[in-house]
Design brief:
The protein is mainly α. It folds into two domains: 172 residues, no CATH class; 101 residues, no CATH class. The protein is built from ten helices and six strands, in the order H-H-H-E-E-H-E-E-E-E-H-H-H-H-H-H. Strands 1-2 form a two-stranded antiparallel sheet. A two-stranded antiparallel ribbon has the order 3-4. Strands 5-6 form a two-stranded antiparallel ribbon. Strand 3 and strand 4 form a beta hairpin. It is globular. The structure holds zinc ion (ZN). Zinc ion binds next to helix 4.
C-alpha cells in the first residue's frame, strides 16, 4: 500500500457529496445516521457523481487499475477506508475513498474497525457491530492522508511487511492492525509470493534498461531487443539515441505499471542494502527518480 496523491473532483461532484452527507447528518442518532449512509450508498447507482469519482479514483491508482490495498487484483469497488456503518459522518467524504478489489473490500476488510482506547493509552478497542466508536482515533492507516511507508517496510526477500515503529507505540498498533487484521497483507500466501516475484521482475527490467542505455551501436541494440522483446522491430532509419529513448520509455512504463508497485518503491528506498540494484542504478541513475 502506497500513499495516494489525490486528484481533484469537480465542484458539482463535491456539492453532490456535501448534499448526500447533509442528508445523513440530519438524522438525530447514530443508528439513524448509519442506516441512512448505507441506504443512500446503495441507491447511488444512477448518480453521475459517482461515475466521476470512480474515474478519478482510477486515475489515482498505484498501477493501472490495480487495487490500492493488495496491489495484485483489478480494482473494481469504490471502497470506504473508514466503514460507513461505523463512521456515517464520513460516508460521503472524498478523502475516505479509494479503489479496491472485491477480495480486499468484501473478503478481507469487511466492516470491522478498532480505535485507540478512550482511556488515552495505545491499546486496541474493537468496536462492536452497530455501535458508535467511542473515539475517531482509528487504527486503520488511511493512505489518502498518511504515508504507509512511515509505518512499515517490505522485506523484498520474504515478501513480508514488517512494522517499523517500536512495539508498544500507537504507530506500531496502527501498522500491525492494518497489516494483520484489516487487510491480511502478510498472511495471504499468493501476495507474498507475487511480491517476491515482482522484485525479480524489476531486476530483470532494470538490467535490460541498463543494457539498452549502454548499447554502443545499432547491431548491439538490435541483438538485445531480439533476445528480450517479442514484438518490437527496430527502425534502422532512426538515430540510435532516439531508438534507445523510445525503448527505455516503454520499459519504464511497463515497470511502473506492473502489480506490486510497493516493491519498486521499496527497491529505491532500500537501495543501499541491495547490491545488485545499486550497481544498476549507478549505471543508470535516472531510474532512481522513477
Ligand atoms: Zn485487493
Amino acid at each position: 500500500m502506497l500513499f495516494l496523491t489525490s486528484n481533484p473532483i469537480s465542484q458539482r461532484t463535491q456539492d453532490t457529496l456535501a448534499d448526500l452527507q447533509a442528508e445523513v447528518d440530519q438524522e438525530t442518532n447514530f443508528a439513524g445516521k448509519a442506516a441512512s449512509a448505507i441506504r443512500i450508498w446503495k441507491n447511488k447507482t444512477n448518480n453521475r457523481a459517482f461515475e466521476e469519482i470512480k474515474a478519478v479514483l482510477i486515475s489515482m491508482c498505484v498501477g493501472t487499475e490495480i487495487c490500492n490495498y493488495c496491489e495484485q487484483n483489478e480494482a473494481t469497488d469504490i471502497e470506504h477506508i473508514l466503514p460507513k456503518s461505523f463512521f456515517p459522518q464520513d460516508a460521503f467524504r472524498w478523502d475516505n475513498y479509494l479503489l479496491a478489489c472485491k477480495a480486499c473490500n468484501s473478503g478481507y476488510k469487511l466492516d470491522q474497525i478498532a480505535v485507540f482506547s478512550p482511556s488515552g493509552s495505545c491499546t486496541r478497542f474493537v468496536v462492536a457491530r452497530n455501535t458508535q466508536p467511542p473515539t475517531q482515533e482509528v487504527l486503520m492507516i488511511n493512505p489518502r492522508l498518511e504515508d504507509p511507508f512511515d509505518y512499515w517496510q517490505l522485506n523484498l526477500e520474504t515478501g513480508m511487511f514488517l512494522e517499523t515503529p517500536d512495539e508498544g507505540t500507537c504507530e506500531f498498533q496502527k501498522a500491525n492492525y492494518t497489516l494483520e487484521v484489516v487487510l491480511h497483507l502478510n498472511d495471504r500466501e499468493a501476495l507474498r509470493t507475487q511480491r517476491q516475484m515482482a522484485a525479480r521482475d524489476r531486476l530483470r527490467d532494470l538490467k535490460l534498461i541498463v543494457n539498452i542505455h549502454e548499447a554502443p551501436d545499432f547491431a548491439t541494440l538490435n541483438q538485445i531487443v531480439n533476445e528480450n522483446e517479442p514484438f518490437i522491430n527496430l527502425d534502422q532509419n532512426l538515430p540510435l539515441d532516439d531508438l534507445k529513448r523510445n525503448l527505455i520509455n516503454n520499459l519504464r512504463s511497463a515497470l511502473l505499471n506492473r502489480p506490486h508497485p510497493t516493491v519498486w518503491a521499496e527497491i529505491i528506498r532500500q537501495e543501499a542494502t541491495l547490491d545488485r540494484f545499486q550497481q544498476l542504478f549507478n549505471r543508470f541513475p535516472e531510474a532512481r527518480n522513477w
